[in-house]
Amino acid sequence: MEIIIQPTPPEGSIIAARIIAKLVRTKPDCVLGLATGSTPIPTYRELVRMHREEGLDFSKVTTFNLDEYVGLPPEHPQSYHAFMDEHFFAHVNVPRANIHIPDGMAADIPAECARYEAAIRAAGGIDLQILGIGTDGHIGFNEPTSSLASRTRIKTLTEQTRADNARFFEGDLSKVPFHCITMGVGTIMESRQVLMLAFGANKADAIAEAVEGPITSMNPATVLQMHPVAKCIIDEPAAGALKKTVYYRWVFDHKPDWQRW
Known about the structure:
32% of the residues lie in helices and 16% in strands.
């Protein structure tokens, strides 16, 4: 796993956007796996800027979102359908037919999960998956103890995750759904490249475990140590509990030009 430490979230987000933009330019019909939450918003903002000011073209791109709440219709302001429209899709030229987000209102949730997995396979798999990480190490909504071989499925959210997400529901925990559809850890690991973002001191322990700890389902992000092309972009506070920060900075500073965005 490559660890990229930047002074601030905006600087880290610009690097993330450049990595994504390089893929879009070199493979215009690439498949992007997208994440929600506050962490990737600055990255989406930079990609939108690149689209408007530099002509970054998403017209052949296909997207798959990591997850969606069960029981929230797409028009609900806290649904991930609404989130993605607000922060990305309404501002770039990804064709609507190429956008895929799990249907949290599906009458048959297991069938919807199987359909989603099949759609990813039919698209040729995900070229680059954007991830955040929870304070407990969850990726997507794969909570601690999730199978590291899991596929898209329904998950029950922990109270910690619900509490962390209550800020998006006017601070009212009672409004946060208990269930979601999420890509599985195994699904995520089949992506050809993974880009995990983490900002803030509250993510420091989860990042230290994910990067330098043993691989364990108690911190699902640790499995990324086994991914062949995983990059982790963090700010200084999120790097606060890492032991090998000097090495990570040295590696990034001495990358050959052809490895840069």
